[in-house]
Design brief:
CATH class: Mainly Beta
Number of helices: 0
CATH architecture: Ribbon
Mean pLDDT: 90
Radius of gyration: 15 Å
Number of strands: 10
Distance between the termini: 25 Å
Oligomer: single chain
CATH topology: Umud Fragment, subunit A
Shape: globular
Number of domains: 1
Helix content: under 10%
């Protein structure tokens, strides 16, 4: 009999836009089973994505497992959750010269320049398609 793979359950905390940023809302929506080998941070959480700017990597309705950002180096193209002017978004992170940008993979919206007061909240570690 095959051995069951270990599973960790993380909370689904709400919705994040995969388009233009909007005001964050944290409304617990259940839990998501993830691989403990992939999602390691004790405060990991999941969000449901609304929007199409991250297609084909993340689609509308996908769940994303996230780990809090703790000032570690972000490789170009890392998908992050960011707070921009008080609103959240999921985008790809790019560092160009002195600029820190958030980029829609689909190219559907123009890059967002991170400014003072904006912040990276988390990085996406896995994408889960709805059942």
């Amino acid at each position: 009999m095959p051995q069951a793979l270990p599973v960790r359950w993380i909370p689904i905390l709400g919705v994040v836009p995969g388009g233009p940023p909007f005001e964050p809302s944290v409304v617990p929506m259940g839990t998501l089973p993830v691989s403990p080998a992939l999602v390691r941070h004790i405060r990991a959480f999941a969000l449901r994505v609304m929007g199409y700017s991250m297609i084909p990597v993340i689609e509308d309705g996908d769940l994303i497992a996230c780990e809090p950002y703790e000032s570690e180096h972000l490789a170009p193209g890392t998908i992050v959750i960011a707070l921009v002017e008080g609103e959240t978004t999921v985008k790809s992170y790019v560092h160009r010269g002195t600029e820190h940008l958030l980029v829609a993979i689909s190219g559907s919206i123009k890059p967002i320049l991170l400014r003072e007061g904006d912040s990276i909240l988390a990085r996406v570690v896995s994408v889960h398609k709805p059942a």
